[in-house]
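Sample intake sheet
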Amino acid sequence: KKFYPTLADLNAATNEITTPANYLSAAGIVYVKVTTNEGCTGNAKITLAYLPTPVVTEATISECYLENNETKAAFNLSLANVSTESPITKKYYPTFVDASNGTNEILNPLAYISGNASVYIRVYNSNGCYAIAKVNLVVIPPKRSTVLVDKIICIDGRTNLDAGPGYQSYLWSTGATTQVLSGVPVGDYWVILKDNGCSVKQFVSVKKAVDPVISEIEISNNTATVKVTGGKAPYKYAVDSPTNWQDSNVFTGLSRGQHTFYVKDAYNCTPIFVEVTVPNLLNAITPNGDNKNDFIDYSELAYKENLSFVIYDRYGNKIFTGNKFNNYKWDGKHFDKKILTGTYWYHINWNEPNKEKTPIKYSGWILVKNID
């Protein structure tokens, strides 16, 4: 057989088609000359016609994120609406090259795990012809609330939890279905937020405010300085009654005896307090044996925990240490000898018998007049 594009070419034996097995042509007519083994010849006309390929369109599939990998989703590729023709069959491929070559076919198209990407479908019609359609895969990420945050409240307080607007639905761990969960106490909560057909479970905590701690009280003469740690600044301070609050942690003009210092922080919860003894103060002793101002006496503090009573000279030398044997009394002597008349300094420290064992530091000076 010999093939020719026109009858004239066949009759003239010119322009023979040399690739009859892969002849590219528009729809039309070609001619064939057939010669038998006996040398007999005959001509025939061949009509070339197209078989139509499927008409396809690009499609997009969106799926909710996977809980164990929020950048990926499980896609049902069969849902891609790439053609309205029927009947058709489909084969799925990860790249256009694979679709063109028919390689690396996707074998699990009903649950194809992927991130944001594109896949390609070979769409076959009943004639066996195919076209390639592109399918865009879009992972719908979780839409978490940026408004919903942990809260800190007083242990006996209540607060509201706001998940923010713009969601299709809300479902709280309490069963509420509103945007705002009102009047909740300290505890752990969650809310399921639905948006764009996808849901995300978001956790939130209402925490107890950490109480501030009166870490130390320094007393000098009739002035007390209250030191605080923890909680949330700024702090408020009061003495003897939790009513007259002040910003300063310094209290002046205190009388001798018992005082209660109160502190509250920015959360305005129930104040914490410490009861403190402000010792009686002598600024001078005259240890001459007349039973008048012969001693500096802090025996009234002997019951205090970790009581320390130390006296120094002006050079910082320790000249007396109070203890249970001398009953925390000093008679102006050092190693049983009278010291020189002059001013001396002392520190008294102890811990109050509360849970925090609040340290109290008391300092002062005393004039010793030793007269022979």
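Comment: The chain has five domains: 2-48, 59-140, 151-208, 213-278, 284-368. DSSP finds two helices and 30 strands in the chain.
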